[in-house]
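re: ur question from earlier - yeah i can do the single chain one, its not a big deal. heres the input i used so u can compare w yours
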Amino acid sequence: MAEQYQLTGGTAAELTASVETGVRDGHLAPGDALPPVRRLAEDLGLATATVASAYRALRQRGIIETAGRQGTRVRHRFPVAHRGPAQLPPGVLDLSGGEPDPELLPGLGTALSRVPHTATGYRRAGPCPELADLAAERLAADGLPAGGITFANGALDAVEQALTAHLSVGDSVAVEDPCWGNLRDLVATLGLHAIPVPVDAEGPTPEGMREALRKGAGAAVVTSRAHNPTGAIITAARAASLREVFAEHPGVLVVEDDHWGELATDPLHPVVGGTDRWLFVRSVSKPYGPDLRLATVSGAENVIARVEGRMRMGSGWVSTVLQHLVLGLWEDPAVEGVVARARAAYDERRSGLIRALTERGVHCAGRTGLNVWVPVPDEASAVTVLRDAGYAVSPGSVNRLRSAPGIRITVSHLSRAQDRERVADAVAIALAPTLQLR
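and the output i got, formated as tokens:
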């Protein structure tokens, strides 16, 4: 813990607020260690139970985590707004964001012109029938089982609504390892316990999923295609195996995330539909832009009902203005061409970087999606060396639970072949000692 910041408080609530203030103001940074419970209790003149209660509340809020022998530390990301986010040094190319290339997103002008000019009231709010029908047609064309249709404010919102509607604080969730960093944070913030499921090139392993469910996971979240960060895709054989595993636990909630759907070149092989509780989520962020906070949500009728019920207690519904905007994009043939060009561009950038890395002896993965995953022996060292070389990449600690270290490289800004070659050179230099040992 940073020495200049001292924790204070005479109650569990006051101690919790002291930690949150330190995080919010930047005095406590990600990875900073907090004092052991007994020592902090002695320093503050509190009962150990009081400090333990504060730490427990902070863990449930996703602000701190227990890291085994490393003790209790501030999480790498936390649900407390940090003032003054760090900026990259001048000249450093950001390959860490996981966002689409703005140059490959369609313009919104034509679709905006088709949005109704009359505001919708409370009684008529909810899923737009025209958009729901078109979404159902698209999902059916991909072989997804028939189910109810609704919309959420992005993929993470849909997952959150489903998990909170079906699980309670302390329950367990089977998650891929490594996994989407935001999902890892969400699970921690909701006070749920993540059970890691190993991932290979074909997605989460059946053995790992079976073990997670045996340990009591009440829900499982899997990625169809463009797994973040490894680029894995669930094949037909793997989907069949996972469905068999889930069939042994029909009461488990199965959530499938297909965020790359419209940009995918590989066919969808759904794992959902064979249990009593399932949800399929496909957001529009990657093909149309992260600012369009909308995800199509399909699922068993009982699950959809719970998701919509949870939404009524919070945001209520997805803006009908936004729904009509997405409808306009889906119905515009010109937008289809833009998405097709983006699909080809991302494939070229990703495969080009993988080819360049492989030629230099660097092991990597990235069959689909925006990212390339590179296993490394030391994430901090690799990230530092690459930043000194002018490239900001994401450390795998953001994504990992128990899996081996790695770094994630987003290819959105690598439109030129020479840029991909230079990045590959920098990665090879960063891993030079390791490559020499192979």
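Residues 23 and 29 are 6 Å apart (CA to CA). not sure if urs matches, ping me
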